[in-house]
Amino acid sequence: MGQNLILNMNDKGYTVCAYNRTTSKVDDFLEHEAKGTNVIGAHSIEEFVKNLKRPRKMIILVKAGAAVDAFIDQLVPHLEKGDIIIDGGNSHYPDSIRRTEALEAKGLLFVGAGVSGGEEGARHGPSIMPGGSDAAWPHLKEIFQKTAAQSDGEPCCDWVGQTGAGHYVKMVHNGIEYGDMQLICEGYDILKRGLGLKEAEIGDIFDKWNSGVLDSFLIEITRDILRFNDTDGTPMVEKILDVAGQKGTGKWTAINALDLGQPLTLIGEAVFARCLSSLKAERVRASKVLSGPEAPKFEGDKTQFIADLEQALYASKIVSYAQGFMLMREAAKEYKWTLNNPSIALMWRGGCIIRSVFLKDITTAFRKNPELENLL
């Protein structure tokens, strides 16, 4: 992801310096992916810092937690007042609050930037959600907005708010992603067990849904997954272990909702569904005792049922986003942030995992009334 972000920025006309503590990776990158570009490499922190224009702008893309603090500690002795450190990883927002305050006390600026879109997004235009030291934004705005995905001619990147706001918004984005994925799974389950449809048939339904109000990245890739067969011709999805892992951002969102007293019911249930899926051995043992309900025999109008299910999925999606924005509104009060709600919706319209046509309506709603009480 870091390499792809560097190549993306190079494409936009910026000279980028790459550094990795395993210096052989830097040489390999310059010899292959970055060959023929304006990207330069560094083999030490000192060389890395020396290569940068003032105020220096440094993006860290390492594993969240102690690794981020360790790298910041290595950078700080070589920096000058006004230099900017950007954490582009999936850090927990309280860490970003702490880092902003600690670095500002030393005369440095800190930005916690949520970056969504994976390797593909990083290369061709991710959604970038920056927040932290307000003074840093004028120096980063052009670079970030050119690097980000574009939606209807507007960049999927804007200043989110102070201290930990950028990583907080990315956290809620991931929570909503958990919700979207769970809703899609339940829609699939109703079509498979309720109507008795085959994977290819369900894939065709998802294809149709992807041309309407549900048009989104997750619906699109679900369609492709359902149509993908193994070498023996059977649907690959049927062979994949029904156990979902998690990195923690959805869990953080649910915990924060409890702390702030916000009814984030849909995302909370999506997190619990993943926890339940991980109890595989116990579920197998339980299935030998409790067989569960028999598959129903559907005798109604299938076409109408599928149309109703599409609307149910759409309504549920609206609930998920409404709860997410409720949580962010409460967090803004709690942490004294000035959150940019219209821009948050715009940032999620392209480049990121939850990108969807539906977010255009949310952007419009918040532009019409930035203090909108509830999306519903």
Automatic annotation (TrEMBL):
PROSITE patterns with a match to the protein in the record: 6PGD (PS00461)
Enzyme Commission number: 1.1.1.44
Family matches, as Gene3D superfamilies: N-(1-d-carboxylethyl)-l-norvaline Dehydrogenase, domain 2 (1.10.1040.10), NAD(P)-binding Rossmann-like Domain (3.40.50.720)
Keywords: Gluconate utilization, NADP, Oxidoreductase, Pentose shunt
Catalysis performed (reactions): 6-phospho-D-gluconate + NADP(+) = D-ribulose 5-phosphate + CO2 + NADPH
GO molecular function, one term: NADP binding
Example GO biological process: pentose-phosphate shunt
Pathway: Carbohydrate degradation; pentose phosphate pathway; D-ribulose 5-phosphate from D-glucose 6-phosphate (oxidative stage): step 3/3
The keyword Repeat is assigned to this record: no
Domain 6-phosphogluconate dehydrogenase C-terminal: 166-376
Family: Belongs to the 6-phosphogluconate dehydrogenase family.
PANTHER family per the UniProt record, alphabetical: 6-PHOSPHOGLUCONATE DEHYDROGENASE
Assembly with partners or alone: Homodimer.
Protein name per UniProt: 6-phosphogluconate dehydrogenase, decarboxylating
Species whose genome carries this gene: Tilletiopsis washingtonensis
